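Lab meeting prep.
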Amino acid sequence: MNFNFELILFYAVLISGIIALFDQLFLMKKRKQVYAKETKGMSNPPELKLPILIDYARSFFPVLLLVFLLRSFLYEPFRIPTGSLEPTLAVGDFILVNKFHYGVRLPVLHTVVYPNNNPKHGDILVFRWPPNPSVNFIKRVIGVPGDKISYIDKTLYVNGQKINQSDIGITNNRDEEGRLWEVKEKMEDFFGVKHAIYINDARYGEDFKDVVVPEDMYFVMGDNRDSSADSRFWGFVPYENIVGKANYVWMSWDSFDHKIRWSRLGKSVN
């Protein structure tokens, strides 16, 4: 079952707001009149107490509304659940995603009301997964509309241009089950965006050639090239599925060693 926090938060704001407004318009005046009659002549009257439901609604509504507006239009926190973007993003990284970088979208409906920047080569994009839009994915933008993408012998080609890779060395990559895999770490220069990638020669990489990215679509891949479910397998990301651009790591928890990765805190995502 997928946990749709955005929808739950929306209903929480709506219900608490309706209760608080109904009380303000119809119940508060009568309650104060009854209180005034009951405490008339008292030198030290007790504090006027609200019904518990109304008290909770009035207390939580402004907080819920503020959180809803911040995460809908400014920044939203996400947790990285898999290693598909390693070594750039580690499992257990908590990141902030800029929600307005690619335009303002209505919460819940996700309709664009104010277009802004379009995704560029090398951007790390959070989006609603096309096969199941209730699930959020995060990948790197490899192809923008009109690009011709090829992937041959684990090397990228964009519009016929080979994307240069330089060797960093051999390292171990741990998967979600804790198993270690020996991988090659390389530095990829992707149109000026330099970032490390993992290549696992023990895993088969299916080649493809001259895949053209359609209008209003994007081709995305993980930096952990042989351990990423991405556009190579399920297709393109439509513009309307975009959630935002990953910006910073604000927390990182190593679930295997049970500790905070202090060195990753505040790291810029690129």
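Slide two material, second protein:
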Amino acid sequence: MARKKTSLEERRRNFAALAFPHMDALYGTALRMTRHPFDAEDLMQEVYLRAYRFFDRFEDGTNFKAWIFKILTNTFINRYRQKARAPQQTNFDKVEFFYTAAEKERDDKYESHYDEKQYADLFGDEVSAALGKLSYEFRAVVILCDIEGFSYKEISQITGAPMGTVMSRLSRARQQLQSYLHDYAQSEGVVKKKQ
């Protein structure tokens, strides 16, 4: 059932009341998906713009969190596919020999400190690296299930994949993560070394 006609101000209030409480969780998921704060912020802007634009399609009484996470996931996947199809481009403004010494020093410090520090705060280096090795389909289901706490049914609705596919991807992703993190788990004493 579609939302009844409301005033613009009422629509804004309704949207804000439903959407803003999920902002931190959405940003955390966007950051884990993109692995870059600037890309995550850009993704968030597009998600909120789309959610607001299509808010009249949201059905009252249904799961708003799953609805907006579906927008996030679909937007991320569409961007990922667009980048994969786009030809490789070089941004000559960023080529090293165009920088002055002061510009190079400033950009290097900013980039390495901001990106790695903020992403590393979410997970340890080993876990971040292991998540980064997963395909975007596997990474998305792990993030939605194990970090955001969505059920298989909700993940199925968010990703548009059948529930069996979600369960299969999650199982395979967890196996891959276990493989990637095995040595680290042994070094931390989580898994005992075989003797």
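Talking points for slide two:
The domain at 123-195 is CATH 1.10.10.10 (Arc Repressor Mutant, subunit A).
DSSP finds nine helices and no strands in the chain.
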